[in-house]
Amino acid sequence: MKTWRRAGLALLMACTALSWQARAQEPAQDRVITASNPAGIVVALMNMGFNPELTTDGIGDPLIVSRGTGGVFSVFFFGCDETSHDNCQSIRIQVGYDREQPWTPAQAMQLSAQFPFLAVRLDPEGDPFVHWDLHLGAGIPEPVFVRNVRAFEESVTLAADIVYAEEKAAKGL
């Protein structure tokens, strides 16, 4: 059953990617980004210079992972149909920081106060994860999506300086 589901998802992604290639001729302001079209989000991220890979998470919902020189970020999908794992409504863009020493909840709250659009949480080892949630519903114009991703990118870059500041200072960097 999983093989059929994965094959169906692969076929759906391929067809969607082809339709997005055809739509790539449209002006960006006319294109709409929705969580129900993960392949469209992949194309938008590729157009922004990222290297996204569309896969699925542990329960079968779409998942985008992008690895680059700046690290790894993930795009999680929420509000998906529980059976078919499609028709998603929202996404979460997330980055995790792997620290040598655990961070405290107080430090996480300070980071959250400095970057009000970033939600900050700590994993069991005390490593901070930051995320930005976007409810896309029926869709948002691609330029608005791009501005959100660029703002997230800038915020997580600045946040990384804060997250790693004491470790860099201890190493004399």
Features:
173 residues; Yope Regulator, Chain: A; two-stranded antiparallel ribbon; globular
What is the distance, rounded to the nearest whole angstrom, between the alpha carbons of the first and last residues? 52 Å
Count of individual domains: 1
Largest sheet: 6 strands, antiparallel
Computed over alpha carbons, the radius of gyration is: 18 Å
Supply the CATH architecture.
2-Layer Sandwich
The helix content is 40-55%
At the first level of CATH, the class is Alpha Beta
> Helix segment count?
5
**Multimeric state:** single chain
What is the general shape?
globular
Low-confidence stretches: 11-20
Secondary structure tally: strands: 8
> How is the CATH topology named?
Yope Regulator, Chain: A
Return the structural class. Answer: alpha+beta
What fraction of residues sit in β-strands? 15-25%
SSE order in H/E notation?
HEHEEEEHEEEHH
For the biggest β-sheet, the strand order reads 2-3-4-5-7-6
Report the mean per-residue pLDDT as an integer.
86
